[in-house]
Inverse folding.
């Protein structure tokens, strides 16, 4: 099978809006999985123009990033592999071509051999204590001092990230409470860093945050319990935040179902009511914020455009909100954007994708590894 001819794209590039031209070239013959194209800044005579044939009226940017996503996870835990493939295809359909999988109970590493599926950065399995997270989601550790070894194992298994459950309801207390002591967290996060991985944690409430941040954690997921003090700590330690705002909209329903735990119920309602102010304060203080939908259990896949829109509600400019799901997120995750020699993973829009969800969720062209979908 011969390699396909070179392709050509002409558009305005985000974030700066400058006119650009890119060529997609294919080296050698396609393997059994199909062609794999790379971007070239050098003109290729005779290339087929697949976007921008009439000039620079459209827009091009790197493939979108969902920085909190769960491929292979459903409402009850692990799902069959064909359903996991369908989840990944849904993300590809909206232009989300790089997914940070923040915990999954199934092994999707075989997806790396499928060039038709988005790239996944895996955090391995959630790590939790017994009965302190959703059933079927996590590896549950009987002794908290098992955490450092478990973190090291997940760091070696994954793609540079490890996911902890930082807090969850303690049924004896009837409210959110931390899962780990500060000494354990410091040892565990050091173990991850020694194995070349960064660490993130699910945190809803206030009490788990100081210990996690001071232990050197790299990112906080959700962060609805941020206070002025913990925002200052995040700035001091350089901790990032992925607030998953569209999932936080589920808090009232979670609270309504918790009649047995009125204290927890009130707490979740309060966290929902103050979320915009708390996350907005983190943005104003300079905490790095990235877009993640939390797709996979309570949130359907393919909703990253809605998360970008929600980030505007905490004070982000349209350009910064989009960057949190694109070029800025790629830099944070240490993955290339649009550059010579990079994989041809990009999205194109006839209209400016910063204008809102209707445009961003419906790209005119999605290209993954040089193949148009």
């Amino acid at each position: 099978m011969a390699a396909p001819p070179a392709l050509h794209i002409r558009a305005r590039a985000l974030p700066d809006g400058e006119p650009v031209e890119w060529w997609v070239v294919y080296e050698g013959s396609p393997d059994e999985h199909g062609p794999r194209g790379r971007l070239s800044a050098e003109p290729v005579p005779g290339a087929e123009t697949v976007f921008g044939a009439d000039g620079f009226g459209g827009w091009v940017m790197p493939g979108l990033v969902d920085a909190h996503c769960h491929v292979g996870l459903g409402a009850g835990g692990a799902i069959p592999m064909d359903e996991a493939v369908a989840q990944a295809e849904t993300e590809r359909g909206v232009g989300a071509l790089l997914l940070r999988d923040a915990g999954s109970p199934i092994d999707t590493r075989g997806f790396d051999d499928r060039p038709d599926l988005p790239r996944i950065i895996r955090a391995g399995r959630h790590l939790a204590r017994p009965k302190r997270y959703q059933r079927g989601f996590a590896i549950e550790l009987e002794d908290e001092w098992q955490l450092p070894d478990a973190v090291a194992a997940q760091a070696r298994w994954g793609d540079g990230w490890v996911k902890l459950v930082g807090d969850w309801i303690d049924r004896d207390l009837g409210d959110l409470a931390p899962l780990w002591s500060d000494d354990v967290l410091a040892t565990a996060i050091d173990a991850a860093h020694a194995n070349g991985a960064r660490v993130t944690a699910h945190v809803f409430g206030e009490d788990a945050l100081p210990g996690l941040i001071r232990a050197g954690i790299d990112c906080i997921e959700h962060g609805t319990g941020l206070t002025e003090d913990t925002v200052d700590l995040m700035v001091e330690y350089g901790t990032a935040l992925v607030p998953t705002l569209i999932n936080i909209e589920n808090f009232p329903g979670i609270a309504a179902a918790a009649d047995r735990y009125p204290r927890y119920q009130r707490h979740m309602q309060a966290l929902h009511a103050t979320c915009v102010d708390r996350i907005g304060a983190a943005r104003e203080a300079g905490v790095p914020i990235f877009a993640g939908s939390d797709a996979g259990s309570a949130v359907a896949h393919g909703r990253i455009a809605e998360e970008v829109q929600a980030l505007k509600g905490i004070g982000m400019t349209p350009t910064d909100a989009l960057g949190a799901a694109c070029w800025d997120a790629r830099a944070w995750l240490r993955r290339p954007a649009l550059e010579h020699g990079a994989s041809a993973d990009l999205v194109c829009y006839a209209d400016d994708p910063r204008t809102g969800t209707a445009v961003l969720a419906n790209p005119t062209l999605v290209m993954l590894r040089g193949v148009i979908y």
In short: The first strand starts at residue 7 and ends at 13. The chain has a mean pLDDT of 96. The two ends are 20 Å apart (CA to CA).
